[in-house]
Amino acid sequence: MNKNCKNCKFWGNEQDALYADNLVQGFEYCRKVGQYWVATTWKYRDDPVRDAELAIDDEHKNEKAFVQDGSDYSADFITRHDFCCNQWEQKDR
User: Fold this and answer.
1) Using H for helix, E for strand and C for coil, what is the string for the chain?
2) Which residues pair with 50 in a beta bridge?
3) Which of 2, 10, 60, 62 has the fewest Cβ atoms nearer than 10 Å?
4) What does the pLDDT read at residue 39?
5) CA 58 to CA 43: how far, in whole Å?
6) Residue 61 has what pLDDT?
7) Considering only CA atoms, which of 42, 39, 44 is closest in space to residue 58?
8) Digitized pLDDT (tens) for each residue of the chain, 93 residues in all
9) Distance CA 69, CA 71 (A)
10) Which pLDDT score is estimated for 20?
11) Sequence-distant (≥ 6) Cβ neighbours of residue 61 within 8 angstroms
């Protein structure tokens, strides 16, 4: 079996996707790659203005990729059916 998006359980149009009707034919959303700002939190030390760092939350520490746009409003990873990656898992039958 080819390990590409069309055979992956994380690939496909989500019902609640914000712009589901705006996808070009042949493209779908990858649900494995999440939003960066959802997976991170500012960690403050002594001075909350000058002494902070952005850190990956524990529940996302093993993720391999994220998407982010300039506004931190919305971002999605959109691929063609023949794209492939190392996080591929077979669709449930």
Assistant:
1) CCCCHHHECCECCCCCCCCHHHCCCCEEEECCCEEHHHHEEEEECCCCCCCEEEEECHHHCCCCCEECCCCCCCCCEEEECCCCCCCCCECCC
2) none
3) 62
4) 94
5) 13
6) 94
7) 39
8) 678 998 899 988 665 556 666 778 888 889 899 999 999 998 887 776 677 888 999 999 999 999 998 887 788 888 898 998 888 888 886
9) 6
10) 61
11) none
In the numeric block, which tokens belong to residue 87?
């996080």
- Please report where in the chains the tokens 């609640």 appear, as a residue: 16
Nearest to 9 by CA among 36, 26, 29: 29
What is residue 22's predicted lDDT score, i.e. its pLDDT?
Answer: 73
Here the tokens at position 49 are: 């203005």
